[in-house]
Amino acid sequence: MTPEPSPFDSAAEFALFARGDEAALERLIAAHLPGLRAFVRVRLGPALRAKESGSDVVQSVCREVLEHMDRFQHPGEGAFRAWLYTTAMRKISNRAEYFTAAKRDVAREVHDSQVLGAYQAMPTPSQFAMGREALERIESSLDALSEDQREVVLLTRIVGLSRAEVAERMERTEASVRSLLTRALAELSDRLVDPE
């Protein structure tokens, strides 16, 4: 009988990382990869997703975080997520500027079943085609939300911030964030049920 793997202990990993353990940082990044991949794909938006591989952006984020681990001074889950997602936003912004300046039109199909895992579980590989359609429907529905609605869904559901943290980031009250999130999730649900 195979022993069950021990649960991931982020506090222990952060303690090791604080002492300069690069392997701990790699494990922390691996634990955050599904959310980071989903965040990057949604933030790329449809136009940039057609030109840029989300996997390339994620890889670039991970490489930069590993190369500059000495810059992270406040070990802890929230600060780490902020560092990771801020790095991702900068990479996405840089890619958007690159494609805008170069006016390139390179369509690239992205296959990444792990991203879908951040949205829903995929029980078997035989459901990949259905999963791909679901991924496109979810991303299309997110793209159709207003900027504030998309932001509140990303920050609460994918990044995992508390309503208080989202309120601070979006410069709103917690009640306003709660209301915005409720409306955004209702609209997202409507769009997923009836995309027309």
Explain what this protein looks like in three dimensions.
- The chain has 196 residues and is mainly alpha-helical.
- It has two domains: 10-124, Rna Polymerase Sigma Factor, Chain: A (Orthogonal Bundle), CATH 1.10.1740; 145-196, Arc Repressor Mutant, subunit A (Orthogonal Bundle), CATH 1.10.10.10.
- Helix content is 72%, strand content 0%.
- Helix 1 crosses helix 2 (22-49), helix 5 crosses helix 6 and helix 8 packs across helix 9 (174-193).
- It is globular and about 50 Å long.
Identify the notable features of this structure and list them briefly:
single chain; 196 residues; mainly alpha; Rna Polymerase Sigma Factor, Chain: A; Arc Repressor Mutant, subunit A; 2 domains; 9 helices
Architecture blueprint of SSEs:
Layout: H1 10-18, H2 22-49, H3 54-67, H4 77-102, H5 113-119, H6 128-144, H7 147-158, H8 163-170, H9 174-193
Helix pairs in contact: 1-2, 2-3, 2-4, 2-5, 2-6, 3-4, 5-6, 7-9, 8-9
Care to give the gist of this entry?
The chain is mainly α and 196 residues long. The protein is built from nine helices and no strands. It folds into two domains: 10-124, Rna Polymerase Sigma Factor, Chain: A; 145-196, Orthogonal Bundle (Arc Repressor Mutant, subunit A), CATH 1.10.10.10.
